[in-house]
Amino acid sequence: MAEELHINQQVSKEEKYQELIPQLSALVSGENDPIANLANLMAALKQTFNFWWVGVYVAKNDELVLGPFQGPIACTRIKKGKGVCGTAWQEAKTIIVPDVDQFPGHIACSSLSKSEIVIPIFNKNKEVIMVIDVDSEKLADFDQIDEIYLNKIANLISDFV
């Protein structure tokens, strides 16, 4: 297991993701506890990109339940179809929200969150089992680069959960 990340902070966002993903694979290699792996992956994302909030919500019955995260305290449970996370879960697709105040039914866990991206994580049966939620205190902070690489991280997660 890698004990520290080596990310050049002077490069583009895409190059940071390209440096990060192989290190994430190494980080989870050989560890079979999904909570430990998720906790380290969220810490690595927070450390690399200084996201306001980054974490996972796990699908349990008709709710998403808070899992490992980095950032301020968060909503503990989210109903299917509610807020950005619940909508991404229900629709089984990535949602990028440039301005959370413009998203119908947005759940404001923190008033400091301004933009958000939510990536579903699928099991082998193509069912959403959890979501990655990333919030920023800046408007329009997420784009297609985040979507592409966070989906790669979601695929990595789906391999060990």
Kindly summarize this structure in a few lines.
By secondary structure, the protein is α+β, with helices and mostly antiparallel strands. The chain is built from four helices and six strands, in the order H-H-E-E-E-H-E-E-E-H. Helix 1 (13-28) runs antiparallel to helix 2 (34-49).
Q: Any overview of this molecule?
A:
There is one protein chain. With about 160 residues, the protein is α+β, with helices and mostly antiparallel strands. The chain has helices at about 15-30, 35-50, 85-90, 145-160; strands at about 55-60, 65-70, 75-80, 95, 115-120, 130-135. The chain has a single domain, classed as Beta-Lactamase. It is built from 4 helices and 6 strands; from the N terminus they run H-H-E-E-E-H-E-E-E-H. It has a 6-stranded antiparallel β-sheet, with helices on both faces. Helix 1 runs antiparallel to helix 2 (about 35-50) and helix 1 (about 15-30) runs parallel beside helix 4 (about 145-160). The longest helix is centred in the N-terminal third of the chain and has 16 residues, at about 15-30. The two termini are about 20 Å apart. About 35% of the residues are buried. The model has no long low-confidence stretch (mean pLDDT about 95).
Labels describing this entry:
alpha+beta, Beta-Lactamase, 4 helices
Helices, strands, pairings?
Elements: H1 13-28, H2 34-49, E1 53-60, E2 63-70, E3 77-79, H3 83-91, E4 95-97, E5 115-122, E6 128-136, H4 144-158
Antiparallel strand pairs: 1-2, 1-6, 2-3, 4-5, 5-6
Helix pairs in contact: 1-2, 1-4
Average pLDDT confidence is 93
* Order of SSEs: HHEEEHEEEH
Strand element count: 6
Unreliable stretches covering 5 or more consecutive residues = none
CATH homologous superfamily assignment: GAF domain
Morphology: globular
CATH architectural label = 2-Layer Sandwich
Helix content: 25-40%
- Mind telling me the C-alpha Rg? 15 Å
Q: What percentage of amino acids are in beta strands?
A: 15-25%
Overall structural class, as computed from helix and strand content, comes to alpha+beta
CATH class: Alpha Beta
Tally of helical segments = 4
- Placed side by side, the strands forming the largest sheet appear as 3-2-1-6-5-4
User: Would you give the CATH topology?
Assistant: Beta-Lactamase
Summed up, the domain count is 1
